Amino acid sequence: MRIKCLRVLLGKTLRNTLILMAICLSVLNMINWVYYSYSEALIETYNKYSAPAGAVFNTRVISSSPTVNPLSKAKNGSAVSPKRRYPFFDPGESYSENGILMEIGPPLDTKDVRKKKLNFDPSKYPLELDLPKLTQYIFDGKKIKNKPINPHPFQYVYNAENACPHENLHLVVLVKSRASNTVTRDVIRKTWGNQKNYKGVSIVFLLGHMKGWEKNISNESNKYKDIVQENFVDDYSNNTLKTIMGYNWVVRHCPNANFNLFVDDDIFVVVKNLDSYRSNKDKEPRIMAGKLLPRSTPFRDNGSKWFVSWEDYPFDKYPPYLAGGGVLMSWDVTRAFAAAFPYVKTITIDDSYLGIIAKKLNITPRNHGGMVIRNPGKDTKAAMAMNFASVVAFHRIPSPESMQATWNQYIAKYPIDPKAKR
Q1: Cα separation, 334 vs 358, whole angstroms
Q2: What mean pLDDT do residues 329-346 have?
Q3: Which of 104, 154, 189, 242 is a Cys-bridge partner for 230, taking CB atoms 3.0 to 4.6 Å apart?
Q4: CA dist., res. 111 & res. 250, Å (int)
């Protein structure tokens, strides 16, 4: 009898334990779903009611009269003057010996920094100055006496100077691409990056220089007019240089755009969903959205391609940043970053570097549930399984064939009428 009762009790205990575990798993799944679905809205509400002190990017400054960008010229040599939302400024021309001298704070004490496990302190990351105030001075047309610590001395090989002709330009997509990835770029132009399918959208490719590919890139640039290339070496370790080039270029050549999307060339973009998001956020400032990584740790193994030394970055964690595969920015944020680059010490990991600048500018990166990162399966030529109704940017498309197959799958579900541009 006692044994029988014990079996009944144990049976009930096991059943109750399994029920409790199932409930806990359900709650965890719900929390995860809420985070990825609504974290953006929560951050948006926080930004709205708790703007950080010193924030200077919360209003659109409309120029009283359009200013001609001297760097942008039409084919006939005449200057192009698109409708501008902001007065023009050149990111590389902020320094002057007669400019405003910004106060520099004390540097970080790096003694025993490996043992201290320091949290990131934007006031201790070079330059140790008030970056929002500095960028506001630049936007007001003032020069800065402090010498830039991150100059960008490279020259354009091709600059796609007529890539942003639209007066009503909603979006510029800047695709970071390895110079040798000509096939990938061709597939993008025929699939999600076909500009004939959209209205008010421009797409360009960001390249460095690669020996042996000069003729190919020259032919490609002459044919498509969408190549932005500078003369630094096209290598993974120079991704930050490529990113800075992209920001500088879009500020100089596309100042009438509302949004900029920075992506890698292994990303599949659903522009229709991006348009919906953009339309809802069109008048909202300070947007920096993507796949949020809230507390990433630097790679200290010098065998890793993501290696960053303690000397280059003496903190134990990165500030919140967005995975570099896809970053969406409103124009005011893009412009602020371009102004800030010369005055913020660089690291080779470009997405982490953007998080550092965002923190120093008091800009909060926000999570966007439509930015998806997946590891490819074994069949590298197959279409990637994704929810086309919600995905904005799908990272890690493994091959040009997979990109094409994914596009074929997309248009089978959402046919595109080229006459009715989005």
Answers
A1: 11
A2: 96
A3: 154
A4: 40
User: Is pLDDT of 61 > 70?
Assistant: no
Please state, in angstroms and rounded to a whole number, the distance separating the CA atoms of residues 154 and 170.
29
Query: At residue 29, what are phi and psi to the nearest 5 degrees?
Result: -65, -40
Q: Using N-to-C axis directions, what is the helix angle for 239-253 and 350-360, rounded to 10°?
A: 60
Return the amino acid letter for 356. I
Q: How far is CA 90 from the centre of its chain?
A: 20
Cα–chain center distance at 386: 21
CA proximity to 352, closest of 394, 297, 309, 300: 297
Which phi-psi region, left, alpha or beta, contains residue 249 (left: φ > 0; alpha: ψ -120 to 50)? alpha
Q: Quick one: average pLDDT of 302-317?
A: 94
Sign (positive or negative) of CA dihedral 274, 66, 90, 206 = positive
CB atoms near residue 277 (< 10 Å)? 17
Using alpha carbons only, what angle is made at residue 231 by residues 150 and 250, rounded to the nearest 5 degrees? 65
- Is residue 152 within 8 Å of 238, Cβ to Cβ? no
**335 touches 287 (CB < 8 A):** no
Decide if 372 contacts 326 (C-beta within 8 A): no
Least confident of 136-140, 163-167, 394-398: 163-167
Contact 327, 173 (CB under 8 A): no
First to last CA, the chain: 76
Closest CA to 79 of 89, 71, 90: 71
Is 416 in contact with 388 (CB distance < 8 Å)? no
DSSP 130: -
Amino acid letter at 332?
A: D
